[in-house]
Design a protein that fits this description.
Blueprint (H helix, E strand, L loop, with lengths): L3 H11 L13 H9 L5 H9 L3
């Protein structure tokens, strides 16, 4: 069984504002994580939308 304290620590680590693509720290990363489920900054999200490959 997973301890609730350990589970809380994992969630806090997921909420950092570092983009998975460009590794930049940006406020839009947490916003896009809530909206889309991906940790992407605004510029990476736009580029993935225009060029999805």
């Amino acid at each position: 069984m997973i301890n609730s304290h350990e589970d809380k620590d994992l969630k806090e680590e997921d909420l950092d504002n570092i983009c998975e693509e460009c590794q930049k720290d940006d406020e839009s990363v947490s916003q896009n994580l809530i909206l889309t489920g991906f940790k992407l900054c605004k510029s990476c999200r736009t580029s993935k939308t225009v060029f999805p490959i």
